[in-house]
Design goal:
Blueprint (H helix, E strand, L loop, with lengths): L6 E4 L16 E4 L6 E3 L4 E5 L2 E4 L4 E6 L2 H7 L1 E3 L4 E3 L8 E6 L5 E3 L4 E9 L28
Antiparallel strand pairs: 1-5, 2-11, 3-10, 4-9, 6-8, 6-11, 7-9
């Protein structure tokens, strides 16, 4: 597995994001809160992390939900995966939504999302009059049916 160096400022009291195991692709992000936040059913809010990063050009950070938080509390991230571009320098904040039927509490230091660092390519458009055909063609949105 390769690695990339990323400059980070941590203005929170939480530890830096870290990989839980050698095979992990994501690092947990924690809530940088001074007091608990209660999310009512279907309510969404922006939770700060206290983290600021300088991602190298050619990379992005993706913010994704934590599966345990989603199944146990019904809390998940909106705009998933959220993209943090290499030229963004603001605080990393997480859009959380409560999809459960009861209020859910986020407390200071809670693990609220995970972040994956990815290489990215930028496309160069080649405008043409026709594109190649495939067996699938224009089939989409469930065209293969159910078994």
């Amino acid at each position: 597995m390769s690695s990339v160096h990323i400059k980070i400022i941590n203005k929170s009291a939480n530890p830096l994001p870290a990989y839980a195991t050698s095979g992990s692709s994501g690092m947990d992000l924690r809530a940088d809160l001074t007091e608990a936040v209660v999310l009512q059913p279907l309510e969404r809010t922006l939770i700060p992390t206290g983290l600021y990063m300088e991602i190298p050009e050619g990379y992005e950070a993706q913010v994704r939900p934590r599966s345990g938080l989603a199944i146990k509390q019904g809390l998940t991230c909106l705009n998933t995966p959220g993209t943090i571009d290499a030229d963004y320098r603001g605080e990393i904040k997480i859009i959380l939504v409560n999809l459960s039927g009861e209020p859910q509490t986020v407390t200071p230091g809670d693990r609220i999302a995970q972040m994956v660092i990815q290489k990215v390519e930028q496309a160069v458009w080649l405008e043409v009059e026709a594109i190649g055909d495939t067996v699938r063609g224009a089939g989409g949105f469930g065209h293969t049916g159910h078994k």
